[in-house]
Amino acid sequence: MIDLRSDTLTLPDEPMLRTILTARLGDDGRLDAEGRGEDLAVNELEDMAAEVSGKEAGLLCASGTMGNQAALLTWCRPGDTVLIDELQHLDRSEKTAFTPRFGQLKKVTYRSDASLMPNTASMEEELKNGPVKLICIENTHNYTGGACIDLKRMAEIRSLADRYGVPVHMDGARVFNAAAFLGTTVKEIARYVDSLMFCVSKGLGAPVGSLLCGTRKFISEAKEMRKLLGGAMRQAGIIAAPAIYALKHNVERLREDNENAQFCASLLKDLKKVKAQQNVQTNIMMLDMEGAGITPQEFCARAKERGLLIRPIIGSFVRLVFYKGITRSDAERAAAIVREIDGEL
Description:
Elements: E1 2-3, H1 14-18, H2 40-53, E2 57-61, H3 64-75, E3 81-85, H4 89-94, E4 106-110, H5 120-129, E5 134-138, H6 151-164, E6 168-171, H7 175-182, H8 186-190, E7 195-199, E8 210-214, H9 216-228, H10 237-249, H11 254-266, E9 275-276, E10 284-288, H12 296-305, E11 308-309, E12 311-312, E13 317-321, H13 328-344
Parallel strand pairs: 1-11, 3-4, 3-5, 5-6, 6-7
Antiparallel strand pairs: 2-8, 7-8, 9-10, 10-13, 12-13
Helix pairs in contact: 2-10, 3-9, 7-11, 11-13
């Protein structure tokens, strides 16, 4: 079975798991005068995250959801307005910050342009209309097939935010995939934002965790918010050690995942009914079922019968995600299965 449901299915290898046995553990929830916990492995990971992102400090969170929500609830207070993409994952999937039961934040949305990057004119229209406390962007963008925001557009967003005096938070769950596609570094991408979250438990292959990065003051406040969200952990070095390994050993190989997704898409250019994404940039590709005469759920069920696990994602789309352990031959077979089903429609 070829499983392309998500890169969260990436499994840690034996060298990564062995790092847990020698991790320097302590109580990460007990803070010293500088606000650092007692788990030395966590401290090392947070310092590494700060370095790789070019920020002053990092904060280990149990998940990307926790990292994003801690960020929003640190930047904002109940009733504040946040400017988000109309298909932003931290709203569509995570939701916590915008629900009346919890964060009680308000949202206004901006659109993407034809290149699937944030439309700065759309963003400015909302900034003009009323007080916005925070701008949120997503790089790569999950629901548009892993599209990247390039450095030119990142700079334009930064300039716009500065003009209106609004900070920028980036959901960078897969920002290392973006850096690989753009031929740059995470630090260069992150220089245009005030805070960012990135995951180590997707393509980087660690079992658990995400890092929130920003100024020391911001991270100190976010640490208190993380505690309120249930994120103060004890011997969290067993999580941090594999993440350290991931950042040391698994960053460069993300190009392979991007290339496998692009290769799969290249084999699906002339389908009869299904419309395959052709501008694949990173490790995600989408299939549009709108004109296929079949629902995304039905298409996924037929694929499963042939040995391919994929999933509906939003609207009429099905998503395929490539990650460590998925080979070029797997990508070729996945494309063949999609073609087989399309030929039967």
